[in-house]
Design brief:
The protein is mainly α and 164 residues long. The protein is built from 8 helices and no strands. The model has no long low-confidence stretch (mean pLDDT 82).
Length: 164
């Protein structure tokens, strides 16, 4: 009689994959404020900040390593991925700052008056229209890693630069 194999303990790579799925799900929940309503859109958007912070922390070694090597010779795909990640970071920061400044629910619930400023509205709307395309490119860049994780592989070798 064979006993069932003990489950393999989750690796850091498993955690990264699950965390990235959570990040994508929460991001998608923010993409349709006309469906969710402004209060849900704003509160879910605020909730994504610590999720992104942990995503960055988990990938910090890769970020630092590639940033240090970026002035020298770098594989084109790795350099592109690094620039794309930088654009994602800037886009996310612009989305969050502009979104908080035009908040209709979040800031007023904290006792702050709502600001009406067309500049911040336009910046938020423009960034919100561009950001999903950047996310799509980011997913495409890591598609082999994603498929590998879905098939049960445990290495990050399938991605540009070895990290998602």
């Amino acid at each position: 009689m064979n006993s069932p194999a003990a489950p393999t303990p989750p690796t850091r790579d498993h955690f990264k994959f699950r965390w990235d799925v959570l990040l994508l799900a929460v991001f998608l929940a923010t993409c349709a404020p006309s469906v969710t309503g402004i209060p849900v859109h704003e509160w879910v958007s605020v909730a994504i900040v610590p999720i992104v912070a942990i995503h960055l922390a988990v990938n910090w070694n890769w970020i630092i390593d590639v940033t240090r090597r970026s002035l020298g010779r770098l594989q084109g795909e790795v350099r592109f991925n690094h620039v794309l990640d930088g654009l994602l970071f800037v886009g996310f920061a612009l989305l969050m700052v502009s979104g908080i400044l035009i908040s209709e629910s979040f800031l007023p619930s904290l006792g702050f008056a709502r600001r009406t400023d067309p500049y911040w509205n336009n910046l938020h709307n423009t960034t919100a229209n561009i950001f999903p395309s950047l996310i799509g490119i980011h997913l495409a860049m890591h598609w082999r890693w994603i498929v590998g994780k879905l098939r049960g592989r445990t290495t990050a070798a399938e991605t540009p630069g070895g990290a998602p």
